[in-house]
Write a structure and sequence with these properties.
Low-confidence stretches: 1-11
Distance between the termini: 21 Å
Radius of gyration: 21 Å
Shape: elongated
Largest sheet: 10 strands, antiparallel
Number of helices: 5
Helix content: 25-40%
Length: 228
């Protein structure tokens, strides 16, 4: 959980509360570059409980299919052999990054496989909530209202409000390795908090980690701008 410091100008302190965190890698290889045996050996060594649906003894051939491989506490490891991805699902950014890097290091040490060398891109997806005493639907509408909505109102003969704020990376292609988009919307059920959805992917691991390291602080500031 991250909170913004209260500013001298009286801006209220808002909190970001993580709902779900996903961090991982997509491979550029045609075939999934890890066997079930290699992954199971690595995860079991690190204290993960393997899914009971997995075959035992572990087959030595290439992996197929998609599903959860293992769990440790609230951390889940998921693989998609067709989609060429390996993901860590966690409850905090710090834990997700640490668990991912632990798996990478263990694969290098025990199987001489550096999955970073197979990387097509790194992916980060997160959902957060931010409680507020204001009405998020109204504050979002005021923050994002523009003249276009006046024209649309004339066409449909109804008063309207923008329902969410969504923006993405300029000059980037949505269907590409390098992309990000961020959505801020009201909590639909109670309208007493903001819901923040973040998608970020990049072929540059350092750039991805830089974004992940600073995004909670930056997104807290974004929410404060909407809520002021």
């Amino acid at each position: 959980m991250t909170s913004l410091r209260k500013k001298e100008d009286g801006v209220r302190t808002l909190k970001l509360e993580p709902v779900s965190i996903e961090y991982g890698i997509n491979f550029k290889t045609v075939l999934f570059p890890l066997t079930l045996y290699q992954l199971a050996d690595t995860l079991e060594e690190k204290g993960y409980e393997m899914s009971p649906d997995l075959p035992y003894p572990r087959p030595p051939g290439r992996m197929i299919g998609i599903g959860d491989l293992a769990r440790k506490g609230k951390t889940i490891i998921r693989a998609d052999a067709s989609g060429q991805s390996l993901r860590v699902f966690d409850v905090s950014v710090k834990s997700a990054l640490e668990n991912f890097e632990e798996i990478v290091a263990s694969l290098i040490e025990n199987h001489n496989i550096d999955i970073n060398s197979f990387a097509r891109f790194y992916s980060f997806t997160a959902t957060y909530t931010s409680p507020t005493k204001k009405q998020p639907y109204e504050t979002i509408a005021k923050a994002s209202r523009c003249s276009l909505f006046d024209e649309i109102e004339e066409v449909i003969d109804e008063k309207i409000w923008p329902f969410e704020i969504r923006f993405g990376g300029a000059d980037l292609e949505v269907n590409s390795e390098n992309w990000f988009d961020i959505t801020v919307r009201p909590d639909f059920e109670r309208n007493d908090s903001y819901v923040l959805n973040v998608i970020f992917r990049s072929s540059d691991k350092t750039k991805t980690q830089r974004f992940v390291d600073s995004f909670e602080e930056k997104m807290g500031k974004v929410i404060s701008l909407v809520d002021r």
